[in-house]
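Hi L.,

As promised, ATP-dependent RNA helicase:
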Amino acid sequence: MPATRTRRHRPKGPTTSRPLASNATATAKVSLPAPAPAPPAVPASGPVAAPSAPSARDETHFSVRRFADAPISEASKKGIKHECMSDVQAATLECALAGLDLLVQAKTGTGKTLAFLLPAVERLVKMKDLASRKISMLVLSPTRELALQIEEEAQTLIANHPLRVAHAIGGTNMSATGKRIMENPPRILIATPGRLVDHFENTPNFVHLFSDLRVIVYDEADRLLDQGFKKELDKILGFLPDRTKVQRQALLFSATVSQEIKVVAKGALAQKYKFISTLRDDEVNTHEHVPQQSIIVPFAKHLAATFAFLQQDRLLHNGASKVMIFLPTARLVGFYYEALSQLPRGTLPPIYEIHSRKSQPARIKAADAFKDAREGVLISSDVTARGMDFPGVTLIIQPGLPANAEQYIHRLGRTARAGAGGRGMIILDEAEAFFLRDRTISGLGITPVPSAATAGSYRLDASLLAAASATTDALVARVSAETKAQAYRAFLGFYNSSLRALRWTRDDLVAHGGHFAAEALGWAGPQLPEIDKKTVGKMGLKGVRGLNIVVSEPRPPRGVPRQPRN
Ligand SMILES: Nc1ncnc2c1ncn2[C@@H]1O[C@H](COP(=O)(O)OP(=O)(O)OP(=O)(O)O)[C@@H](O)[C@H]1O
């Protein structure tokens, strides 16, 4: 079955937030208390002093320019639910309408989707010479969920235009989608790169649908242009008509555009492209009104610290606590989900999980449920880190190292969207603390979590952590051995790719993995979880002592152990 959906946005829930009082610059560290006592039946509640007041909207990224006065069609105006443009929409409209290629940078949650959809749609409806039964506009998205979200926004915008939009994304029935698209080609196609390549290679005549392509959009352009998608992007461009022979507009949008990406992006843009940024020269890349905090605790206490902040956010946002927890790999998401799901009903808001190892219908179900939820906890890998617009998220928790500074910024950007408030919390082991000294990250104003109670603030000290650990240790004890073994291997796989930054040798990695298994996962067996000989080889850990290596049955080629997945 293709992943077709019909859903409507519910109005944004109230988002409450208030800047935190602490201005300290050192990093908070919590020294560990003695081993935790027996777990209480009801988890310890947080130390929050007072609910925070609703935050003022951050108006700086919304202009006073009205859509009603813009040089766009009445049909588009009817499809737009906002009165005034955001900065990025106002800054790019005329250039995009004029058909220029654009590379655009604007903060997360400031309306980039409409900024590329609107002018592109306007241009299409004015083009009289479009070939019939062809795709005129292609939007590339790095993730499936984001593709569906863009499709939904496009659907709203074009409701009064004679245009149709469809998607082609991984995890859905490819032949059914291919057949539908070939029988009735949409004017606008939203696609993920891998699936698009699959269609080009395997759906007969698919490539002919693109012979008159007029607009190509790269949403989350820096992610699409990085090494991870290079192979697919090269193939896609190879299937599309030669840029020198057709007039095709390219629109590249992202919240993060590094100098490196600016260079790479030139390959996707016409020579006379324009770079537009709505960030002031001296401005940091996250929203000023989003307090961001850090805490340094051992890996073994990351789950407990997460649980303590979940409880505190619930108290702060009475009935409207909506938290996203971002973990480095799919298997670690699975571990957190299995642990926190054991809590007695009602201890936390409803918990959802999303990552690449779930089926696509399950992913869509979780994303939709969290979108619609007034309160909830979404435990996620980086599949939802970029672009996803979940209304009313109050707190982003990041236990463990983000893949890079950009990913930290995009994850944080799931809160405080469209001028709303929100907060961020990053939980790191001492070995990971270097991340806070990263040039980009150190400029973001992340402050240590205070240990003393402050009105409307989170806090953490050794006794709060011990109380939270008492609960989470009991939860972890009930997590299945398989989930723990997978989390252990994911830990090794993920941190293996950051050895230099961590200043770990391969022996250190294996030793830390062992501690993680024993202390964070409560692994009690005489042997560590098994790890396949081939995986050990791929990780470059051959000859390192301290692993429980097994030789598994040969698997069919598609199931070969891979890099840790999101
Ligand atoms: N002009 C506007 N006024 C108010 N809200 C808007 C406006 N334009 C878009 N929005 C809303 O702002 C939210 C964020 O928009 P969008 O998802 O396009 O942000 P984005 O800049 O693409 O974010 P990200 O960088 O995370 O991808 C959405 O809920 C959208 O409906």
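The chain has 19 helices and 18 strands.

Thanks again for sending the construct details.

K.
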